[in-house]
User: Fold these one by one.
Assistant:
Number 1:
Amino acid sequence: MPAPRGVLTARRSPRLPFLDVPYFDAASAAPLHPVARQALLAALDEGWADPARLHREGRRARLLLDAARETAAEAVGCRPDELVFTPSGTAAVHSGMAGALAGRRRVGRRLVVSSVEHSCVLHAAEAHEEAGGEFHLAPVDRTGLLDLPAFRSLLRPGTALACVQSANHETGTVQPVAEAAAACREEGVPLLVDAAQSLGWEAPPGGWSLLTASAHKWGGPPGIGLLAVRKGTRFSPARPVDERESGRFPGFPNLPAAVAAAASLRAVRQEAADEAARLRALVDRLRARVPALVPDTEVVGHPGLRLPHLVTFSCLYVDGEALLTELDRAGFSVSSGSSCTSDTLVPSHVLKAMGVLSEGNVRVSLPRGTSEEDVERFLGVLPGIVAGVRSSLSAPVAGGPREQAPPQAPPQAPEGSPAQEEAQEQEGSPEGAVPREGGGRAPGGAAAVVDSRGKRCPIPVIELARRIGDVPPGRVVAVLSDDEAARLDVPEWCRMLGHEYVGETPAEGGGTAYLVRRAHG
Amino acid sequence: MPAPRGVLTARRSPRLPFLDVPYFDAASAAPLHPVARQALLAALDEGWADPARLHREGRRARLLLDAARETAAEAVGCRPDELVFTPSGTAAVHSGMAGALAGRRRVGRRLVVSSVEHSCVLHAAEAHEEAGGEFHLAPVDRTGLLDLPAFRSLLRPGTALACVQSANHETGTVQPVAEAAAACREEGVPLLVDAAQSLGWEAPPGGWSLLTASAHKWGGPPGIGLLAVRKGTRFSPARPVDERESGRFPGFPNLPAAVAAAASLRAVRQEAADEAARLRALVDRLRARVPALVPDTEVVGHPGLRLPHLVTFSCLYVDGEALLTELDRAGFSVSSGSSCTSDTLVPSHVLKAMGVLSEGNVRVSLPRGTSEEDVERFLGVLPGIVAGVRSSLSAPVAGGPREQAPPQAPPQAPEGSPAQEEAQEQEGSPEGAVPREGGGRAPGGAAAVVDSRGKRCPIPVIELARRIGDVPPGRVVAVLSDDEAARLDVPEWCRMLGHEYVGETPAEGGGTAYLVRRAHG
């Protein structure tokens, strides 16, 4: 099919030679940029010595380190003496937060972070709390955008630090950093901006007090992060420290990686505008066509304020791990919306904070140089893969609530279990299944009960979809589940298919009952 | 001149191509081993992805990381699941100490470390103390060897951790790790062995509970360290952590560096026995010939229990920085006995703990492949360089106390200063310059006073050497100094030249008076 104008004509970067399959997980780690590789090799030859030493190898290393610092500072938008290199973006966040919190300990121990920050920010917030501090999560809307009035209201006296990412790593939503910084400035609170996902595209707006980033996100080498601390920001580095990196990060510096990080940051910035436009067109195509090609799928994140290269969508009735595995088998490397540090497939805290579907979540993040052909190929295989996974899970056919009987027998609760008795009782008299005061077994006036306890998502939603047709319109089905993801996915299923989500109540015998009223018509 | 047998016949490794001058500072950082370079490049191509991801790039990265861990664990002498990669040796030490101290917090908060540990160990000990813990320094003898009975006596109840390095980074002295581990085992105290300087040569003896190392010391890349924690060792990692590296070190792992570190560790170990023998012969030559060629110089460290590639000596009447600069100008890169993290030229805590001369300290640490010719060239230029620096500082000519008048006028104290008056008074009647009770200006019964306050070492010792001939044998000269290094260097000067060091006393008007009794004959 013909591709939209502007994409076909866009400049195409060559695919990196070692990417033998389309790699669509740039937000986890980008392949090494050729400039980074070149700079790393040169710096390994010229900058292996200790830059703190006085001999010629040490002085040569020091010159390289100074030059790398200047280049990186220019790209960040700060002074070289405000920037230090750390071993990772996580290390930059951890030491930046610890240093800022300790520096303002006298002001208070209150920490405000957006609820969609990277897990490393949340880990540091939890550590702060364990050490006697307190932290507060600023909410986001359904697109993942920071709720600015709520954020501002959290910046109460005693707030030592606030953290807002420049753009989200799972959804691509770009945060209102300038507005958040203005609110912080008014309240006299320093703002730490985690720019890990966006620094390769552009410098975040000014106004931040601390900024962190991670080189392997823009095609720099692993093993290097950036921490910038504006002059005038109170900062007391976590102990122990030494004389390295202005006393802000201890240990022998990873100089070759710093050089490669700086060189590649400059390089990717030079091509950022063109490449962002090109990838944005490809992402627009994915955003438009994935929901059209794959039924019961929704795109997650802000429609306009977003990173150029990243799109996330969620598919009903699909197991995320199975989807990843099948896409991988078909030659596409994607990620699923969990934290950046694991594929544990617990529901992502980001999707949870947004209140959107976590089921069958797929993050596509295109590395620079991704070809249109690969995106088209992805669009070509995705519908069949989703359908295959759905079929293997006996999911309902797509398109909305099913009124006819399920093609396969619904999963049976074990013989003699309370849920089975309950279901039999209610199946016999759906209209009469009203809650009994003080001792009812059908929660919330449900006309039918689906006991999906002990089953992982998406099974609870699949079973709900199969059984909703068993009750008349206007009546309630209770889904019992002990999978945390059901709390997100059942309401979202209702929203997507037009049923009413009534609410949740603890289920007798454990787990939670999610109550769904079948739509009329 | 003919070199000793066994050295000429020893196998010579080729000098690494990018070492255009003899680099004798391997203990700071070794040039990248060719195997490390090769492995790093391969791992950058194959292992740039996130090893926690499920797609093929992630799985490939995970395989590489697992293989690197197995290789490194084999070289360390532990199980792969006992070993994690950290961003540096310093990070390994800091997280290892913090984790072990926190894991045994209920036992007590007492920490015992040898007084010659690397500064990163001492920094962590200070941080522990700042956080409410306590730490105790175990003494060493004049050769830098741990005083085992003193160490054992410090392992009192409530001791959470002890730290003993495998070998010293400044003197090369190899510590009795097996004996220290046995003492710790008897007292039920875990032992952390910092093996940074020795792991490239051999695995330290077993018995340790935690072991740390740094890849760039053996020719691995910068940006990678090792932390091994034996099963059964109580360990509670410092927060924040994530799911990386068994929850022991957070952040995106530097996988290419880990692969290169492991590969190069295996490579250097394969050639370690031959290369150690070859370098030991070169170091033996330096140890024998430097004191013979350069008067008033002594070799520091244990004569037998030492690393194969490292020798440290100290030269009287020489400024360390000037010596380094002149050696650098002559094409030799060496280091001076301060901490590994700076050339601040404050007296080294190691030399101080040993109680040896810190003046004019030079550490020569030969990288693998150092040629005999380069060592001979070094021996050829060193005497002239030391003599030149001595001459520029108006140091006395070598060979012992001078009885004749100095060739140049001694430095004058400012007109009308108390010291000048004192000197004049004493010069006029040296025999009568006895201390006056309650208000004497000549400290400690000195017959002459040399006021070197405001002058950095080696000037105080140079001025002492010039003036000692001004008093009769058996009489005392007081050297006034506010340079901390004088506390080490004046007694050592006495020991080397046969005078009696009487002691020190606070000087009127600031600083310290060091009292020296001129030898008879």
Number 2:
Amino acid sequence: MTAPRPTVLLALVFGIGLAAPAQADDPLPSWNDSPAREAIIAFVEAVTTEGSPDFVPPGDRIAVFDNDGALWCERPVYVQAAFIADRVAAMVEDDPTLAERPGFKAVLDRDLKALADLGEAGIADLVAATHGGMTPEAFEAMARDWLATARHPRFDRPYTELTYQPMVELVDFLRGHGFSTFIVTGGGVEFVRTFAEPAYGIPTQQVVGSTIALRFEMQGDEPTIVREPRISFIDDGPGKPVGIQSHIGRRPILAVGNSDGDYEMLRWTTAGAGPRLGLIVHHTDADREYAYDRESPVGRLDRALDEAPDRGWVVIDMKRDWESIFPGSSR
Amino acid sequence: MTAPRPTVLLALVFGIGLAAPAQADDPLPSWNDSPAREAIIAFVEAVTTEGSPDFVPPGDRIAVFDNDGALWCERPVYVQAAFIADRVAAMVEDDPTLAERPGFKAVLDRDLKALADLGEAGIADLVAATHGGMTPEAFEAMARDWLATARHPRFDRPYTELTYQPMVELVDFLRGHGFSTFIVTGGGVEFVRTFAEPAYGIPTQQVVGSTIALRFEMQGDEPTIVREPRISFIDDGPGKPVGIQSHIGRRPILAVGNSDGDYEMLRWTTAGAGPRLGLIVHHTDADREYAYDRESPVGRLDRALDEAPDRGWVVIDMKRDWESIFPGSSR
């Protein structure tokens, strides 16, 4: 019997797993070797190699990422829905009459069917009441406070620790190759902006999202912006290409989504001339995260999954392709 | 008599002015020594010196610039107004019945009073008809083509050569010190985006402006964005802080304007905590550019000028403070 090498011995003694050592220059250490990983690396190499027919100048290297379900966990409910639920509970404590409003009632009863039946007006009332009538600074402080204390019901960690480590690495990898990285989210832009920079290194000005109307006014001698109780833009589905054009002003070359709400963004991005990459995060890992697609009320992925092969969109299989899912976690 | 030094001799022979040689590291060579120049340099030094009580981390170094009259010439009319006038003429050539619409008629007659009397609906009709009903790509191509050929009536140069060289240097100086530089313009965002990058090094996603509504649709199998014939946001006056908050998501630390349309942006920017700088470009040079302020129909500067001393806003006196005005020009 040959004596084990010292590192192996150490591993045995301390019970440390002996994974293949990460190469110092591995840009995507949390990804397993997979077609998706290869497609990403080949694409980045093609668009950044000067003289390559696929070379794209840095200014045009725009990458857009959906947030819920593409950059962080969206189950069992959207994080912002959990935020709204807690906010509703707090508001009803202050003013019990609110409990009779249909949106408030549905949230308090955790009545998903009633929520689904609210319709646009009911949803708007709920979002307006919970998100409007304050300054952006006040809203931001409230959202930050909530994110600092709220915990995911299953994983018992702050939501901001339930970002996807492989995606954080991808965002960073792209940025290191001259890409400008944007979030394009159906969520409220000012909610997502409170954590986008610490979580992904994406500054506030690179977050595009749903908005409520803002109004400028002088409060005494104090210039003030007030969030009005009214949704002004829904950045979902066909809203995503519109949000991209309004905010960024040029077509991305790379788009990442995980649901049919990202379908139009994927279409818009990959229909452009020259090299384009569309990526779909497919939630296939019930053990480490969640497994859902066609039938899910949250993050339904049906049409985009059907069309992916023909459109050349690369499907990321979370279970197969990701060596780990959450930051600082072995799973 | 002492023999003149060779350089002085050369200067005499060739009639070259002997200005003090520009220092290689002079960041603002087109600026004369002046209180404005000193205030800018002191501000940038304060916010970029680590350990200084006024230090601002790079992510928060947001600078916003008005465009018309602050970064380029806005007289005798806004450049976009000249664009609209030429577009109206071309459209009427194709369809003479258009000449009867009040907005079209006022433009064709160069009837400033009729234009002023159009009211919001008339202006909207005009902008919608000339700017709407096409894709952003088609609009951009049209604007680029026009900018490539149109010439300023007095200076007989393309409008894109009538940027202010000292301001181009300022934008560059700030960017070199970790600032993110944004245009916040009352002009149409997609018009300004066509030249912001070549003219100022400001990419499309850092231009905030007035917008017309966009719609996503499938044209056959082609995902398409269409500009609707409807103004959706006016980024002027109280609209500027709103545009900033919507698009950038944080309060700037430096704002540059030249008219009362920038008043609220200056107020909003300089009311924030910590070091702030408000700059006003005052058009004082009828010889090299234009002289106008309180009575001007274009770029009226009245209230902001009155309040500048008390609010600590620094007024740039173009005639006194700028050694040259336009790029590649001795004047």
